[in-house]
Amino acid sequence: MKAEIICVGTELLLGDIINTNATWLANQLKDLGIDLYYISTVGDNRRRMEEVFKTAYQRSDLVIITGGLGPTEDDLTREVVSAVTGRRLRFYQELADQINEKFKKFKRKMTPNNLRQAYLPEGAEVIKNRVGTAPGLYLKVNNTIFVALPGVPREMKINFTEEVLPRLKKELPEKGIILSRLLRICGIGESAMEEKVKDIIQNQSNPTIAPLAGNSEVYLKVTAKAASKKEAEALLKDTVDQLYQRLGMYIYGENDETLELVVGKILKKHGLKLAIAESCTGGLIGHRITNIPGSSDYFERGFVTYSNEAKIEELGVPEDVIVRYGAVSPETAKAMAEGVLENSRADIAVAVTGIAGPGGGTPEKPVGLVYCAIADKSGRVDLYDFHFWGEREWIKYSTSQYTLYHLWKYLINKFSVEPKNTQ
Amino acid sequence: MKAEIICVGTELLLGDIINTNATWLANQLKDLGIDLYYISTVGDNRRRMEEVFKTAYQRSDLVIITGGLGPTEDDLTREVVSAVTGRRLRFYQELADQINEKFKKFKRKMTPNNLRQAYLPEGAEVIKNRVGTAPGLYLKVNNTIFVALPGVPREMKINFTEEVLPRLKKELPEKGIILSRLLRICGIGESAMEEKVKDIIQNQSNPTIAPLAGNSEVYLKVTAKAASKKEAEALLKDTVDQLYQRLGMYIYGENDETLELVVGKILKKHGLKLAIAESCTGGLIGHRITNIPGSSDYFERGFVTYSNEAKIEELGVPEDVIVRYGAVSPETAKAMAEGVLENSRADIAVAVTGIAGPGGGTPEKPVGLVYCAIADKSGRVDLYDFHFWGEREWIKYSTSQYTLYHLWKYLINKFSVEPKNTQ
After folding, report:
1. Which pLDDT tens digit goes with each residue over B145-191?
2. What CATH number belongs to B259-414?
3. Which residues form the MoaB/Mog domain (chains A, B) (predicted)?
4. For the domain A2-171, what is the CATH superfamily, name and number?
5. Cβ of A106 and B43 within 8 Å?
6. Which end of chain B has fewer CB atoms within 10 angstroms, the N or the C?
């Protein structure tokens, strides 16, 4: 199956947006074993869209379009697919009902242009959009499949995964199976990590092992091809086992398991409550922890003690400690974590204090210096210092990442859990 | 001048690399006033490259190609430009000498395939590459200009800026100027917003007005073309003034001015301290506020009162209020905001409580229902209710967005500031 991606949107031609949709879709097609031959970007212009869609119709078996599905006059994807395939636009009552309902439910007034979204080319299946308003379409015509998805990356990804992927899998002949496992690695840099597993990577062709860079973490993507799922899984297991032996506690999770997820799982399992005190991260750690559904089971409260007064008043950090050692010091981090335990109902407390920049650094305490403390009811307090480099948001994110990583390690050690997660 | 970008490289079709070259070049062309109509990506495949290059030759005045200029058999850009334009490849002695010299300088052995880089289509000017090995080409043939640049982003950018930009400027008839202003709009949906300004958008060709969707906000991008900067600015001002008249307080900022930034600016200017209490957002609002450098001047502290106990103990929310009205209720939001004022040193307090889902919803209080309170020392408390739909992270983000928007409106009204920000 020869595939082609068309991204519609003048904003892409003006350089306002980096086209991450195409990259994401390219990866999806690769995982399906579908060959992608072209990616095209075209503006919201009827004539030029027709030209590009027509070419795609002639040369490709699968045409995935993103963008141009909104309610405005500029949104022409429905019309152009219709014109190019000769399938007239038809009014879908179910779509009109859904659109009406969404507006009613949220008590907003529906403007008439929204009903443009209720028209699709004759014969098209509706791609439901449970996370937005613009429905997509799936149309098979003369052995070419047209798929149109919203341009908003989040909606596009969810709709593709839930609605398009199952349909495409049915179209593919039964052949080889490609399986991947993504190992998520923190606490070590990309080149140091690669050095540890270089020989395994080099002596390996199936599975392949690809190192990938993340945000304050790195990944190893292990991909196996085989005739059956069982065989592919066995191939993966052998290689992944070797990588776990080399990298041990640097691997904190696999696939979609973020740090906030793996931390939350252990807390939940052991019925523990967590509370946190954040200074330089300003709430980011709490935000990440509460991104996990059900986190209210273990996340008890957070203190964003940005000012010194807040550290003293909320957490009982002795003023003397701040004066003598500074707000950014191991002593203050320790007092913050202990203060969290005293001023909450949590079993485990985490505290961070650091200099996110760009101002506030000194030669002794530069921008990017962060202290982290993890304390529990036994009186144990673990202290860490981080030294990041970069911009404010990067330092904040890296702090959240390393803090969660050390919290995960603390929990793993506390419960003597085997970190190895062989599926 | 109609331009087109072609990115060559199978790695782009495999999704291994995000195509930042195209975005960067798109911005360069915009600044030059050159209209970019298409971006195409194609793999290192001779037949498909020929097809894409040929189409571009037929429809565009300027074709900028990145990638495919290296020394390997896979690097086909030179050959394909030659085939499509009918200009035979010619040996450039100067290029061969340069390549030889570079290898000598770095004491590496030159393999014969490197000499492939010494061939260019007849009539092509050499694009020097002072930061890498692969030279590019600049070829004018039948009123179409072909530019080929290396795919490595750093080399591509330096070569474009130093070698291509001066040549293109000479080709342009008059130095037209393009200027844009991005209006940032919150508190209204995309279609309702467009309805309000539809006639202005439709009756307008210079400046153009493009509606763009953001995350829980929308944009209007106003772009003017003129002979001089002054003239472009005047054109922009006229149109932008009209849009402000229609949209008023929905426009909270322009260009890079985020909500956290405009809120912070007013707080700082008036020497006010802000403290917040977050329930469903888990720290996200504090995180966003502290993304702004210098936010410690006005952000005093935050309470992430995730559990009911935290709401009662940290903020003094009466247990009775939670029991009678629920943790997600206007009454609780109000008590939280008042509690923030009493338990901090802030002048203004913001509190949110809601149901981020996926669990925890009821028919009366569905997932996505959020209450927000803004309180100040005068005893005034403003209450808002939001009704979002979507996933957990989306509801959290939308809550942070609408909370910051209402805080901005509160501050604008408090200080009778004119929101209109005409540059």
Report:
1. 999 999 988 889 999 999 999 999 888 876 677 888 999 999 998 88
2. 3.90.950.20
3. 4-170
4. MoaB/Mog-like domain (3.40.980.10)
5. no
6. C
